[in-house]
C-alpha cells in the first residue's frame, strides 16, 4: 500500500499563519516599500547587496526584525511539512509547529547574533560585511518564494515531493549564488571559509536536525 501523499487535517491555524505572514509583508511595505522589493529580488540582484553593505545595518530595526520573523516562520512551516511527511505518527497541530518554530527561531537568532558579535569582536566588519549581508538577504529572498510555494502546497494540492525538491533547489541556488558573489573573499581565505561552513552551517544544522527528527 502506498503512503498517502497529502494528509487530511484541520488547517485553520495554518491559514491564520499565512494571513499573519501576509500582514508582515504589508508592514514591511509600509516601513520601506523600496527595500522590501529589493529584498524579494535580492537573490538575482547583486547591486542590492552592494548598496546594503555600504549602509548601516541595524540588527534589530523594525524592518529587519519583521523580515527575520517572516523568514523564520516560512522555514518553520517547511520543516513542519517535512516532519509530518517523513514521520507520519507526528501530531499535526499548532503545538507541533510552534515547537519547531521555537527551535528554528533560536537556531537562526543565535547564529545571527554570534556572527554579528564575532565581526565586532575581531574588528572585521568591513572585510566580511558583504559576506554576511549576502547570506542573510539571500535567505530572505528564498523565504518569499517559499511563502508562495507553501500556499500552493496547502491549497492547490501540490505533491509533497515537488515542495521538498523545489525547496532543496532554492537553497542550493542560494548557496551557488552566495559563492559566486563572494568568490574573491572565499578563495583568498579558503581555509577560513571551510572552517566557517563546518562550524556555523553544517554542525548547527546537524544538531538542529537531530533535535527535530
Describe the structure.
The protein is an all-alpha fold and 213 residues long. Helix content is 81%, strand content 0%. It is built from eight helices and no strands. The chain has helices at 12-40, 46-53, 62-86, 94-121, 125-155, 160-181, 183-188, 190-212. The chain is globular and about 50 Å long. The two termini are 24 Å apart.
Summary?
This protein has eight helices and no strands.
Q: Give the strand tally.
A: 0
Order of helices and strands: HHHHHHHH
Strand content: under 5%
Largest sheet: none
Given the C-alpha coordinates, what overall shape results? globular
- The mean pLDDT is 79
**Structural category:** mainly alpha
Q: Return residue spans where pLDDT drops below 50 for at least 5 consecutive residues.
A: 1-8
Amount of helix: over 70%
Oligomeric category: single chain
- Total helices: the number is 8
Distance between the termini: 24 Å
Cα Rg: 18 Å
Fill in the keyword field for this structure.
81% helix; mainly alpha; 8 helices; disordered N terminus; globular; 213 residues
What order do the helices and strands come in, and which of them pair?
Layout: H1 12-40, H2 46-53, H3 62-86, H4 94-121, H5 125-155, H6 160-181, H7 183-188, H8 190-212
Amino acid at each position: 500500500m502506498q503512503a498517502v501523499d497529502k494528509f487530511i487535517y484541520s488547517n485553520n491555524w495554518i491559514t491564520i499563519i499565512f494571513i499573519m505572514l501576509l500582514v508582515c509583508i504589508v508592514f514591511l511595505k509600509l516601513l520601506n516599500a523600496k527595500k522590501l522589493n529589493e529584498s524579494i529580488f535580492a537573490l538575482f540582484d547583486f547591486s542590492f547587496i552592494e548598496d546594503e553593505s555600504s549602509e548601516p545595518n541595524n540588527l534589530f530595526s523594525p524592518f529587519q526584525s519583521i523580515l527575520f520573523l517572516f523568514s523564520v516562520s516560512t522555514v518553520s512551516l517547511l520543516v513542519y511539512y517535512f516532519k509530518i511527511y517523513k514521520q507520519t505518527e507526528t501530531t499535526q497541530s499548532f503545538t507541533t509547529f510552534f515547537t519547531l518554530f521555537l527551535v528554528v527561531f533560536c537556531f537562526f537568532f543565535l547564529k545571527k547574533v554570534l556572527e554579528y558579535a564575532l565581526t565586532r569582536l575581531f574588528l572585521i566588519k568591513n572585510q566580511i560585511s558583504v559576506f554576511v549581508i549576502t547570506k542573510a538577504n539571500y535567505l530572505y529572498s528564498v523565504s518569499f518564494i517559499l511563502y508562495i510555494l507553501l500556499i500552493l502546497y496547502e491549497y492547490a494540492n501540490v505533491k509533497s515531493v515537488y515542495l521538498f525538491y523545489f525547496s532543496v533547489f532554492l537553497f542550493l541556488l542560494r548557496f551557488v549564488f552566495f559563492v559566486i558573489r563572494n568568490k574573491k573573499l572565499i578563495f583568498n581565505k579558503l581555509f577560513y571559509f571551510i572552517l566557517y561552513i563546518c562550524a556555523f552551517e553544517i554542525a548547527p544544522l546537524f544538531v538542529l536536525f537531530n533535535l527535530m527528527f
